[in-house]
Amino acid sequence: MKTLIAFILGLIAAPIILAVLGIAGWLPSNSTAEPPKWEASVGMRALDASLEKRSNGLSNPIQANDEAALAAGKKIYGDNCAGCHGSAKGPSAWGAKGLYPRAPQFFEEGSDVSPPEAFAAIRDGVRYSGMGAWRGQLKDDEMWKVANFIASMQPKGGKKMDMD
Question: Higher confidence at residue 39 or residue 138?
Answer without folding.
Answer: 138
